[in-house]
Amino acid sequence: MIYSVRGKLIHADPKLAVIECGGVGLSCHITLQTARQLPSIGSEAMLYTMMNVREDAIELFGFAEQKELASFKLLTGVSGVGPKVGLAILSELTPERVALAVAAGDYKALTKAPGVGPKLAQRVVLELKDKCALPTASGGVEMPADAGPVSAAGNAAEAVNALTMLGFTSGEAAMAVGKLDSTLPVETLVRQALRSLANK
Predict the structure, then answer these.
(1) Four-way CATH pick for 4-64: 3.40.47.10, 2.30.30.60, 3.50.50.60, 2.40.50.140
(2) pTM of the predicted model, to two decimals?
(3) C-beta of residue 134 within 8 angstroms of C-beta of residue 157
(4) Is the Cα torsion angle 60, 62, 67, 71 positive or negative in sign?
(5) Residues 154, 32: Cα–Cα separation, whole Å
(6) Domain spans of the chain, in order of start
(7) How high is the pLDDT of residue 158?
(8) How does pLDDT run across 115-154, given as a tens digit for each residue?
(9) Backbone phi, then psi, for 173, in 5-degree steps?
(10) What does CATH list as the number for 67-198?
């Protein structure tokens, strides 16, 4: 398993980055989020990687941040979600937004990604409900310590839960809370989200 690659960036486009390490150019499939964080061509770049071995190909997937890699691993662990779909979802949504959508049951947010229909999005939410949590500041992903996905997902998911109890849909609540700093106290998140929803 190749944990990461570091070297000179010799090619980059929205879907691919090639990093030269010891005279060998390693081609990494990337998300739009990672593409936006790449340095200029010729500069040193570092990506966290995951290798996918198939009968007809060996592919390397690269991510600018560990939390994006962790989210990619969770997504591709869902039946029916291959690496291409995983990249598509993370090109459309940040790892935090993916975790928030799963915690809130907002499968429609996932359908914004190309190739993700309602049935597949619902399966992602269903299979990751007890696994997915908001990425931590250290770059890892919090895993549930008890039965509830809400407690596992931290302050943001608690705020979403509170808003749904106030009568807002999961989608509305997740959208409002997703725009805020998830490190804020739950009460502050709820207040600011209510203000945002009231202005709509």
Answers:
(1) 2.40.50.140
(2) 0.69
(3) yes
(4) negative
(5) 26
(6) 4-64, 67-198
(7) 80
(8) 999 999 999 999 988 775 544 444 444 433 333 333 335 7
(9) -65, -45
(10) 1.10.150.20
